[in-house]
Amino acid sequence: MQRKKQNFIQGAFILMLASLLVKVIGAFFQIPLLNMIGGKDSPAFGMFSAAYRVYTAMLMISTVGVPAALAKMVAEATARGREHEVRRTVRVAGSIFIPLGAVCSVVLFLGAGTFASWIKSADSRLAVMAIAPSVLMVAVLAVFRGYYQGRSNMVPTAVSQVIESLGKLFIGLGLAYYAVQHNFSDQAVAAMTVLGVTIGEVAAAVYMLIQGAITHRSSSAVHALDDSVRPAGQLAKTLLSLSIPITISSAVMSLTDLIDVALISTRLQSPAVGMTAREAMSTYGIYTGQAINFFNLPQTLITALAVSVLPTIASARAAGNHAKVSKTLGTTLRMTVIITLPAGAGFIMLAGPILRMLYSQGTELGGVLMGLLGFAVPAAALVAVTNSTLQAFGRIDLPLVSMFAGAVVKMLGDYFLIGNPALNIMGAPISTALCYWLIAVINLFHIRRLTGSLPPIGKTVCRPLAATIGMSAAIFIVQRVLNGALSAAPGTMPDKLITLACIGVAVAVYAVLLLALGAVERDDVLLLPKGEKIADILHLK
């Protein structure tokens, strides 16, 4: 069991490293891009973000449920020794979802103007057209990723994610720079920028096709412990019955994001708030380019954990290994809390200073919005993990219900809070926090009902929370002392050095408190590279 647990954590660790690298690459893309085409005086970044939201919604409809559903089926078939069924399942998935991706790409390209008008951003039409082919590429990636994740091999997924990001960085940023230097219109700048996303997806899909061909040749002789193979029709029915509810539950939030774009723009332009269309899109660009960009950082790490937990729990349940299910669930929830509690606290306390280190404009508003999103960070991470857990338990209907409830809260919150002139755009992160906490609480309730209990709250929540409180106190003290000593003006080099010092102290204090409070176990550290040596150095038993 220890070896299987190692495979689970190592797979999650690989994806976390890849996700972290992707976010670093993304920062090298987003930060100069926002400085180049964003801010209060330019709507181009808002158009880029709006087009990306349309693309994400179409992606949700066509392929989002595929990796999770396919990974679950592959993991279960592998646990039973049905290698022939694994191959047929992958072929069935490809025959369904790759043509669907192609259709969605065509619809998105031909209907770009209509989609842009629906989200109250008609000028985003060219950007939507430029990103349309990406849906087909991601459909190809989804099938391969589902297969490899079901095998608990996270390396191909990780590599493809890095390739996507590098394409966006070098090509997207290069095209944006070219467009700005040649005085292209805002619409053309947004379209040129988003083209980098499409080219990155093409490169990642080509890599995955090559990787798939290599895997196929190296495993041509299949040794199955069980020669049973269900008919293609039955496999297709099972795959769709799994993927459609997952898709719908994910699409609920993605479509809510689209409504979010329209509501933010519409409510900011309402008589009560009184912004022009250009001001509203510029404000939206600051919200997505600064606050949401950082909000997604811890989520990418937890998404890697959620991707790994689904096939692990599914295969353990298929093999009747309930002890492994319980252990995996406990480890996953504890790691989620350990990662996201300090991240959320850091958002609340250091949002403005962090943004001033990286951006030249819009940081005052961006800092307020990012600080408010700090309250949503742990909840959003719990949603990702608990959704995957419920799906692994075969209850794909439950996340659908909770996500729908959260979406309703999000839309109502946006409408009433953003329309309040005292809050305006600040209503968006507030409603996001309310949305995710509602979903997380509902999901945890269902997991407790299905399993009979949740992991101990003291080890899972209270110890990381105590370490986070201590870390926050250290940030407060260091910030006050250094600001008093240096009298640093916002955005100056001393101000940036103070922020770096606060982050360094926060990391050190949190790590020490985690160890002192016993929040990290030896088994957790053993699953890291050189884990045994690290555990011995830390005297973990």
UniProtKB/TrEMBL annotation:
InterPro entries on file: PG_synth_SpoVB (IPR024923), Poly_Biosynth_Transport (IPR050833), Polysacc_synth (IPR002797)
Subcellular location as annotated: Cell membrane
CDD domains hit by this protein: MATE_SpoVB_like
Pfam families: Polysacc_synt
Entry keywords, A to Z: Cell membrane, Membrane, Transmembrane, Transmembrane helix
PANTHER family, sorted: LIPID II FLIPPASE MURJ (PTHR30250:SF21), PST FAMILY PREDICTED COLANIC ACID TRANSPORTER (PTHR30250)
Species assigned in the record: Agathobaculum butyriciproducens
Highest classification ranks of the organism: Bacteria, Bacillati, Bacillota, Clostridia, Eubacteriales
Keyword Ribonucleoprotein: no
Topology within the bilayer: Multi-pass membrane protein
Protein name, UniProt field: Polysaccharide biosynthesis protein
GO cellular component: plasma membrane
Residues spanning the membrane: 12-34, 54-75, 96-119, 125-144, 165-182, 188-210, 337-359, 365-386, 424-445, 465-482, 497-520
